[in-house]
Amino acid sequence: MINFFAAVLVIGFVSVGFAMAESSPAQPYPGYELIWQDEFDVDGPPNPANWTYEEGFVRNEELQWYQPENAQCVDGKLVIEAKRVDLPNPNYEADSDDWRLNRPRIEYTSACVRTMGLQQWLYGRFEIRAKIDIGAGLWPAIWMLGSARGWPGCGEIDIMEYYRGKIWANAAWASGTGGRWGSKWDSSATPIEELTDKSPAEWASEFHVWRMDWDENQIKLYIDDRLLNTIELDKTVNGTKDGANPFHEPQYMLLNFAIGGNNGGDPSGTEFPRRYVIDYVRVYQKSENPGQNR
User: Fold this and answer.
1) 81 catalytic, yes or no?
2) What tens digit of pLDDT does each residue of 89-119 get?
3) What pLDDT does 12 receive?
4) For strand 218-223 and strand 208-214, is the pairing parallel, antiparallel, or unpaired?
């Protein structure tokens, strides 16, 4: 049933024109080698050798139903499109206590692509050029998760989150308190007005480059070469019995466009469809440390 609805919803996706600024060719940084990239230069679904999908209602009581059809490569860019819809939830259970099941309707669709099971990395320089949508209730993100254990012990790195007027650059790990979901955060929130002399709308109409430099000592998170947050990894040891440091373990990448939920705000007054456009993802590692990609 959902496959039918998804096919209907994707009609006209690639017929919409986008103002796509050209990206520069990838050039290795001194001391680094470019070890992995996706330039999204083949129209159609993202490369299945690089990306899989989350599907359905997933986390944070967000409003969107994730489905692969909302992610398409168009003119050398990955376009994740969020739509307002009215569809039945195929997993609906009226008496369930699970928010994923007790919603009778799907009000929005979007996509989350991830390298889980295909690509993961330990340390390096990660560079992502993207144009984000800052409409009310929207929550685009570029982030990383480990796979050695469940969240938050697996570690989370938010190279970019946007919601409620701010760009966030964060890391999270297990606090060892507060039960199963107890987490500790090192977060930075920067209002868009502090990043530019332009209006937020003008800023959001342009592409920006998010970067993470990650080694055994620190994670540094940047936008357009401006440092937003430095996470010292001697402080990120899980407070749980395993005592692991999740940022000394490989992580995979997610690109998603969420709506609403416990952070994203209220999208009810926002016109849809909305688009989050990713130009490229490039991963570099230091030349003297080959073989870190796992």
Assistant:
1) no
2) 999 999 999 999 999 999 999 999 999 999 9
3) 46
4) antiparallel
For the stretch 199-240, pLDDT in tens is: 999 999 999 999 999 999 999 999 999 999 999 999 999 999
Cβ(88)–Cβ(101) below 8 Å: no
Query: Catalytic site residue 22?
Result: no
Exposure b/e, 14-34, CB count within 10 A at least 16 = b: eeeeeeeeebeeeeeeeebee
In terms of DSSP H, where are the helices of 91-247? 200-204
| HSE toward the beta carbon, residue 179, CA cutoff 13 A | 1
Distances (CA, A) of 55 to 68, 109, 174: 7, 10, 26
Hunting for tokens 């749980």 — which residue is that?
Answer: 240
Average pLDDT over residues 254-280: 97
Of 152, 187, 159, 149, the residue nearest 173 (C-alpha) = 152
Tally the residues of the chain.
294
Decide: helix, strand or coil at residue 106: strand
Catalytic residue among 62, 69, 107, 161: 161
Q: Kindly report the pTM of this predicted structure.
A: 0.91
| Mean pLDDT computed over every residue of the chain | 92
Sheet holding 112-114, edge to edge: 52-53, 112-114, 251-259, 138-146, 156-163, 166-174, 183-191
pLDDT exceeds cutoff 80 at 3: no
- Which tokens belong to 82? 């969020």
Residue type, 172: A
- Tokens 């407070």 sit on residue: 239
On whether the CB atoms of residues 89 and 104 are closer than 8 A, the answer is: yes
CB 171 within 8 A of CB 236: yes
Residues 153, 154, 155, 160: what is their CA dihedral angle, to the nearest 10 degrees? Answer: -140
Catalytic one of 127, 156, 193, 271: 156
